[in-house]
C-alpha cells in the first residue's frame, strides 16, 4: 500500500466552568496515533459534559492536492502548504469523523476515512496545544504487488565449493558445485533482474565444518555481509556454543535478525544493550509504498538440541505465530512472510493453523524441494508446497535444501487485498564446470553435451563464482592451511585402524579390531549426550573411519582426515531386537553378500561378541548395554526401546545397515552435528586418547 505523510497540529479548546489557567499538552493529552483502521486518535482527558473544538492542519507530501472534509457540505481544499481545513465543535463522549472523499497522492485517487477518538475524563482543563506530530500512515490505495524472495537455509559453515555426484544420461558424474562465491553471484544476478527482490537466510548459518571450528563464525559473517541479506532468523545451531559466542557472531553481522518466540530481554549476552543490532520479533519493509512484514520463528528443539542460556525464554511456535500475525494485521499489514527454522512438516502444520500468513520460508529439516530427477536427486515435495490457511487462502511453503547447495527463488503475487494469487518458483542447483566420470575429467565432446543438457534444465545452472566473495574466502582458505595444524589433543599410543579384526598392515595383530573406531563412536556419544539427546549407544561403520591416529599430537587436520565425509550424526529410536538385527545385517553385507568391508560394526555403549562360526543372522552371540544409572553391563532387552546414534550414511541404510534405513521418520532425528567436528569437540574435552578398555568387541574368527 502507498503511504501518505500526515503532519498535523491539534488545537483543543476546552470550555470550562473553572477559571483555571492554561495547562500543557503533556499534562492533558497523549501523543496522537493512527490505528490499524486508519483512525486518528487524540487521547485527551477532560471534565464531564465539556465541549471542545478540534482544529487539524493537514499537508500532503510531494506538493499533491488533498481534500479534507470535516462534515461540511463540500470539501474544504488544502493547498500544498499547511493551512486550516476546518473546525468542528463536539460534545463529550462523541467521535469526530474526518472523511477524505478524494485524496490525490502520487498521482492516484483513493477513498478512505479517519476518526478522531477522544477520551474525556478525570482532568480539569484549560487551553493547550498538542505538539506537532509527524506520522507515516498507510493509505487505502489497493493495488497488486509482486515480490521475488531469494532464500537459503542451513548452510552450516559450508563456505567453499564441494563435489556432488549427479546423473547425466544415466551416467554418474562428479561435479564441483556450491560455495558462497557461487551463491553470491546468483543472488547478485537475480537482484538486478527481478522485481522487488528480498534475500533471506532461514537459520543455522554456523557450526559444521572446519571453517567454524577455526573461525567461530567470523568467516561466515564476512561472506554473509557481502551478500547483505534483508533478514535472518536464528536457528537452533546458532546456540551450540552458548549465548556469549552467539553474541560475538551476531555483532559481526550487518543485517537484521528476526526471532519472535525467544525473549532476550533478561539475557546477559543477548539483550538489546549488548548487541550492535537488537534481535527483533519482526521487521516491516516498505515495498512500492506497501508494508511487508518479515517474522522469525525458532524451533523449540533448540532447548534440547543445543546450548541456549537459561536466561532465555522460549515460546510455542504456533501460539507465537498466531499472536504476531494478529498484531501485524491489527496494524493494517496484510502481506506477511515467515522465516521459520522449524522443519518442513511442522511448517505445513503452521500454515494450516495460523490465519494471515502468506509465505513460509523454512529451514532445519534440510529439505530438498522441486523436481531434480533428471540429475538423479530425490526431493521431498514440490517447490513451493501450497497449503490452505484457516481462511482457505493459499500459503506458500518453500525450502532450499542445505549447505548453500541450492538458492531458492520464489515469486509471489498479491491481489488488492493482500491475498496470494500466484506463487511459483525455482530452486537452483549451483554447479561449477568441472565434470568427472570414472574418476577422470570428461572429454570435450562429453563436456559440451553435459553443458547443453544443463542449459535446458530450469533448476540446474553453471554459475561463475563472484570475484568479491572469492577474494574474501581466499583469505580464510589460506589461514585454514595454517590453522588446520592446530593441536586439539594427544594420542597416548598408536590408535591403529583396521576394518575387520586381524593383522594390521604394520604387522601388529588387532584381534578385536580397530582401536580408533570405538573412540570415534564414543566421541559421537559424548556429543549427543552434551546436547541433551540422551543416547544409549552409538554404532559406527568401519568404512567411515579412514586412517590410523598415531602417537603424538592430534590436529584439526587429523580429525578431518580421519572423518572426511560430509556426514552428520543421527539419533534413532530402535528396539533391542532391531539393534541386534542391524549388527547382523552389517555382517551379512560383507561376509555373505560381497559388500564392502567397511560395513563391519564398531560401537560405544554396547559390548558384543561376534562369532564367525555361526550361521548368518546368528553371529552376534552376546549383546549387552551399559546401564546409565548403575554403570553396569546388562543383557539387552529385545523389547525395550533404545536411543541409537550413528552417522547419516549408515542411518540411510548404507553399507548394509538396513535396519537403520527402516526406522520410520517419526523415530529418527538428524541432529546435523558434523561428525568430524563432534569428534574434535570430544578430543578437546578429554585432551588425551587411549584405547577403550571397558566393553567393546569380542571377535571369534571362523575356524576352517
Task: Write a structural description.
- The structure is a single chain.
- By secondary structure, the protein is α+β, with helices and mostly antiparallel strands.
- The chain folds into 3 domains: 3-138, no CATH class; 145-159 and 182-430, Metallo-dependent phosphatases (Purple Acid Phosphatase, chain A, domain 2), CATH 3.60.21.10; 487-700, 5'-Nucleotidase, C-terminal domain (5'-nucleotidase,  domain 2, Alpha-Beta Complex), CATH 3.90.780.
- Helix content is 22%, strand content 33%.
- It is built from 16 helices and 43 strands.
- Strands 13, 14, 15, 16, 17, 26, 27, 28 and 29 form a 9-stranded mixed beta sheet that branches. A 6-stranded mixed beta sheet has the order 19-20-22-23-25-24, covered by helices on one side. A 5-stranded mixed beta sheet has the order 36-33-40-35-41, with helices on both faces.
- Helix 4 runs antiparallel to helix 10 and helix 11 (517-530) packs across helix 16 (675-686).
- The chain is globular.
- The model is unreliable at 1-141 (pLDDT under 50).
- Residues 148-367 form the Calcineurin-like phosphoesterase domain.
- One of its GO terms (cellular component) is outer membrane-bounded periplasmic space.
| Total domain count | 3
Q: Using the alpha-carbon principal axes, give the shape.
A: globular
Could you state the oligomeric state of the chains shown? Answer: single chain
Please state the average pLDDT score.
Answer: 82
Number of strands: 43
Family: Belongs to the 5'-nucleotidase family.
Pfam families: 5_nucleotid_C, Metallophos
Protein name: NAD nucleotidase
InterPro entries: 5'-Nucleotdase_C, 5'-Nucleotdase_C_sf, 5'-Nucleotdase_CS, 5_nucleotidase/apyrase, Calcineurin-like_PHP, Metallo-depent_PP-like, NadN
